[in-house]
Amino acid sequence: MRHDVVVIGGGSAGYAAANRLHAGGAEVAVVDPGPLGGLCILRGCMPTKAILRSAEIAALIRQAPEFGLQPGALQVDLGAILDRKDRLVHEFAAYRREQLRDGRFVLYEARARFVSPRQIQAAEQILTADSFIIATGSVPGHVPVPGLDAAGYITSDEALELRRLPATLIVLGGGPVALELAQFYQRLGSQVTLIQRSHHVLSQGDEDIARPLEQRLREEGMQVYTGTQLREFSVADGLKVAGFHHEGTYRQVTGHQILQAMGRRSCIDGLALEAAGVEVEEGRIRVNSEMRTSQPHIYAVGDVNGVHETVHLAIQQGEVAAHNALHPGGPAHRLDERLTAEVVFTDPQVAGVGLCEMQCQDLDIPYLTASYPFADHGKALCLGVPHGHVKLLCQPRTGDLLGAHIVGAEAGELIHEMITVMHFHGTVHDLCRIPHYHPTLSEILTYPAEELQERLGR
User: Fold this and answer.
1) Nearest-angstrom CA–CA distance, 97 and 12
2) What is the pTM of this model?
3) Strand order in the sheet with 341-344
4) How many angstroms separate the CA atoms of 100 and 109, rounded?
5) Which amino acids are annotated catalytic?
6) Closest CA to 222 of 258, 261, 195, 240
7) What's the burial of 143, exposed, middle or buried (CB within 10 Å: 0-12/13-18/19+)?
8) Residues of 288-299 as b/e, b for ≥16 C-beta within 10 angstroms?
9) Which CATH code fits 2-140+265-326?
10) d(CA 83, CA 433)
11) What tens digit of pLDDT does each residue of 56-96 get?
C-alpha cells in the first residue's frame, strides 16, 4: 500500500503532523498500535493535572483557618480521585480517536517496523511512502542502581493508577514528573522522601528558581535530599530501603513504595531503525533543526528525539516536519527555540521562557537580571501565596528580553504574558509601558522590569 507520508504514532506530535499534511493535500497514513490518544492524554499531561487539582484543593482546605474559615476534617478518597481522572481521560481520548478515524487519514492500528528506508510493515501490510514521520513518544527509563529492580518500584504510569495511598513513599528524581507526583502524594497523606542526584531540583534551570519550591515541599512535611549518590536498594521487614550518600554521610530511608521518576527514554523498541538507516544517539533519534533524521526523508518529532519533552513543542516539531515533508525541495522550516517554555505544576508553580542565567553563562551571552518576591507583592499576600519570585533577563544595552522565570502562584498562567512580549521581540521598556490592572498577580512582572529599566539608564 502506498501513501505520500506515513506518520508513526498518533499522539500530540504525530496528530499535529498528520493534520498539517492533510491540510497541505498529502495522502497520509497514521500507524499506531493503540490505545489511541498518546502520552499527553493517556499517561501524561491530562491525567496528572486532573489528580493534582484534588491535591491543590486539599492544601487550600488545610489553609482555610488562615482566612477565618473552619472546615470539617479532610477525608481523602483516592479511588474517587482516580475515577474523576479516568472519566476525563476517557473523554479526551475519545475525541482524539474520533479525529484519527474521521476519514482525513488512513489509520492502521498496528505496530510499525521498518523493513527498508522507504517501507514499513504494519501488521500484515507493507506500506511505502515518500516520507516518514516518527512520533512514537517516550516511556519511563530504566536506572541501573544495585538492588532497585529486586526491591521493586513503580513508574509514573503505575503511580497514576494506585488506588491505595502508600503510608510512606520514596521518590527518586527531581524533575517535573517526580516533583508533581511527590507533592500530590504528600498532600493526600503519604509521608514522602524525595532523593535527587543534583544539588537542587529542576537541575536544568537556575538554582534560585528551584530553592523556593524545595522550601515549600519541606514546609509541607516532605523529606527532600539533594546532592545525593544512590548506592543500593534492599527490602527489610516488608519495607523498601534506599541507601545513599548525602553531604558526606551514608543514609538509609525506608518506604512502603518507591516511585522511580528519574527520566524517560525514547520509545523506539521494535521500530528496526537500523533497517531504515536512521541513526540513534544515546538512545534517542538524532535530528537537526528541520526535524530530519540521518535519512533526509525520515523525520522524528516529539519525545522520541529527546530535544524537548513538552507537548506544545512536540506539536511545533510535528508541524515543522510536515511542512518539510510537503516541500522537500523548497525552503525548509526550522524549530524556533527562542521561545522555548516550560511549566511545572507544583505549588508553587515553576515556569520559564527563553534563556536562564545558567544558559547565558554557558553560551557567553551578556545579560542583566532582576527579580521581585511574591512575599512583597500585595495581591499575593491577599491570596496567601507568598512563596517564590519572578526573574527577568535582558540584553545589557538594548533591554531586549532574553528570558523570564517565575516560581510562584499561577506561574503557568503568568508566563504567557512574557511569552507574548518576547514573541514580539519586546524589551523591558515595553513591559513597563503595558498597563497592568491593580491589584493583580500580573503586576509583579513590572517590578523587575522597572529595576532593569533604571539600570539601563532610560
Assistant:
1) 12
2) 0.95
3) 341-344, 349-354, 401-408, 389-394, 368-373
4) 10
5) 438
6) 195
7) middle
8) eebbbbbbebbb
9) 3.50.50.60
10) 47
11) 999 999 999 999 999 888 999 999 999 999 999 999 999 99
| CA 234, 239, 245, 251 torsion-angle sign | negative
| pLDDT over 70 at 458, yes or no | no
- Determine the angle formed by the axes of helices 12-23 and 311-326, rounding to 10 degrees: 30
Enumerate the CATH 3.30.390.30 domain ranges in the chain, comma separated: 341-456
Delimit the CATH 3.50.50.60 region(s) of the chain: 2-140+265-326, 148-262
C-beta of residue 388 within 8 angstroms of C-beta of residue 320: no
Cβ of 204: how many Cβ atoms within 10 Å? 12
Fold annotation for 148-262: FAD/NAD(P)-binding domain (3.50.50)
Over residues 118-141, mean pLDDT: 95
The CATH-assigned architecture of domain 341-456 is: 2-Layer Sandwich (3.30)
Q: Which residue has the cell 479511588?
A: 79
What residue has cell string 533543526?
289
Q: What is the pLDDT of residues 199-227, one digit of tens each?
A: 999 999 999 999 999 999 999 999 999 99
Confirm if 230 and 262 have CB atoms less than 8 A apart.
Answer: no
With H, G, I as helix, E, B as strand and everything else as coil, classify residue 390.
Answer: strand
Angle of the 45-63 helix axis to the 78-100 helix axis, nearest 10: 150
d(C-alpha 367, C-alpha 356), whole Å: 10
